[in-house]
Amino acid sequence: MARIIPSPQRGLNTINLQRFADNSDKTEKATPKKRQDLRKKGQVMQSRELPANLILLILFLTIRILGNYIYRECRAVFQMFFTETSTFSLEEPAEVMRLALFVMLQVAKIVGPFFLIALVVGVVGSYVQIGFLFTLEPLKPKFSNINPLKGLKKLFSTRSLFELVKSLAKVIIVTWVTWSSISGEFTNMMKLMALEMGPLALYIINAALDVAIRICFALLAITAVDYFFQWRRYEKDIRMSKQEIKEEYKMMEGNPEIKSKIKQKQREISMRRMLKDVPKADVVITNPTHFAVAIKYDPDKMPAPYVLAKGADFMAQRIKDIAREHNIHLMENKPLAQALYQTVEIGQSVPPELYKAVAEVLAFVYSLEGKNPLDKS
Fold first, then answer.
1. 327 and 220 share one domain
2. What is the bridge-based pairing of β-strands 306-312 and 291-296?
């Protein structure tokens, strides 16, 4: 009877081991262009908790500093309602308006400083993080956000786990700070029984403000740690692959292959234009095989002889062939041909240090042809 022997690899064959591998090839930091594109879309690194916690801390500190001012303004409101309302005639519109203006003024005096502080801290906190940014891109509806599968993926992601741990840490730290602050006041609680209502209320308010300020400092410490992890996560999320960087470079600078072809085409056009000018030359100075430089002396254009064309190897041979076709003299002078090719560009005058050598060549050619370029007759 045949026996079926289970293969030890059978179990592994049913598992796709690639699932456990990191297939992400986004290992490069985001380029400035990608950061700018993300910024236009409103996708920037920003902690909304940092300005909120700063606002809370500064507001509580403000209450602590401006406590007497707030007490005076609130007392003025209550005194007015309890002692002076009888003097107002609610049947007279002018009196009602005066009462309303008084109430609004007092409320503005009390709430105004806190509103301004919250506004300034919120704006400065956001500006320090991301600078000035105005975009309506985040307000555009995205149908991918209502995808239930994507929502479930976010619900059970490491990011959700991190947020849960952060929330638990906040609860634990806030509870510990509150308990440690209150426990330190246990010895003073027995003394509170002998205090009158005013001092007792003042003591409770000061104690509550101290606890609130300590909690705010603790929340800021958590926010600083959270900001660091958010920054790392953001940098990881916007990473790019090497291929993406290449594609971006192609978009910004143009395709290198296309640019190379354009440059090659430009060189070909320049070479054709240069070869068309060779028949105008007075002489072609050669190496004799490696270099060829076509010289022209035209006093109307330049005060000194200038280079019409030049070339090396194959291009030098082309220049010499054209010169022979048009009966242009070829003069062999290795040092002069080399010097002209290396130091003078097409269309430029011969440098002063080469005047004498070029003049001797031109004088010899002119003597053969029996002409003088300075003779206008």
1. no
2. antiparallel
pLDDT digits (tens, 9 = 90+) for 256-286: 666 777 778 877 787 888 888 888 888 898 8
Q: What is the pLDDT of residue 10?
A: 42
Per-residue model confidence as pLDDT tens digits over 148-179? 666 566 666 677 777 788 888 888 888 888 88
Confidence of residue 376 (pLDDT cuts 50, 70, 90): very low
- Claim to verify: residue 166 and residue 53 sit in the same structural domain: yes
Please report the sign of the dihedral spanned by the C-alpha atoms of residue 111, residue 131, residue 235, residue 26.
positive
Dihedral pair phi/psi, residue 293, rounded to 5°: -130, 120
pLDDT on residue 18: 42
Range of the domain at 311: 274-369
Name the one residue in this structure whose structure tokens are 């026996």: 3
Integer-rounded Cα Rg, in Å, for the chain is 44
Q: Does some domain include residue 6? A: no
- Here the tokens at position 203 are 């003591």
CA distances from 111 to 31, 53, 73, 202, 268 (A): 46, 19, 10, 20, 77
| Residue 263 is assigned to a structural domain of this protein | no
Whether residues 217 and 81 fall in one domain = yes
Residues 79 and 219 occupy one common structural domain: yes
Which amino acid does the sequence have at 152?
A: L
Number of structural domains found in the chain:
2
